[in-house]
Write a structure and sequence with these properties.
single chain, alpha/beta, Rossmann fold, 2 domains, 8 helices, 41% helix, Phosphate regulon transcriptional regulatory protein PhoB, phosphoprotein, transcription cis-regulatory region binding, activator
Amino acid sequence: MALASILVVEDEQAIAEMIVTSLEMADYQVKRAANGQIAYQMVLDNAPDLILADWMMPMMTGIELAKRLKREENTAEIPIILLTAKSDEDDKIKGFDAGIDDYVVKPFSPRELLARIKAVLRRGHADTEGKGLTVGQMVLDRSAKKASIAGDVISLGPIEFRLLEFFMLHPDRVYSREQLLDRVWGGNVYVEDRTVDVHIRRLRKSISILNHETMIQTVRGAGYRFSAENFTSE
């Protein structure tokens, strides 16, 4: 029985063939795209379980592909592993800011690649199939689109739910208004940056039971951060 479906986005023929052969031998379902533009259309037509994308490609880089997919609601949750010769910390930060899930630095062994793939798929499976996300006494049921605090269901609008879900999946990191617009609202929606502030206020009000609103912190001049570190319970 085949495992997950993987889209390999690599413009170098020899590297692509090596990767595809290794994945097929491990019983993955594999498709290949020669560049980011082709890959983007393939993902829209038939979303894979995971994407392996080279950083440096003509027409659309792996980073550009990741940013585009993470802005779309239907593709935002697809895990992406970036294949790159870049190993500097600043380059890695750029990748993670674009929403990628992991890095594999060239040259790499098929064994390392398969281990990274299994780890990322395992994390993604736990996120979508687990009992929910929990911080403090707050529980988010992603499949039922419901949230509760200390057993009491709280009322959240669609945007507030997506904001809270994003924050709980990405704790202890500062996100600017622009980044939140990209990741929560999506790339096809054009609203003012200050709209984020309005929905943050609504979300804080909704989760104010037992002081959970203190988890959403304003970082002056930078944006917002979700963290339980400074959470103050009554």
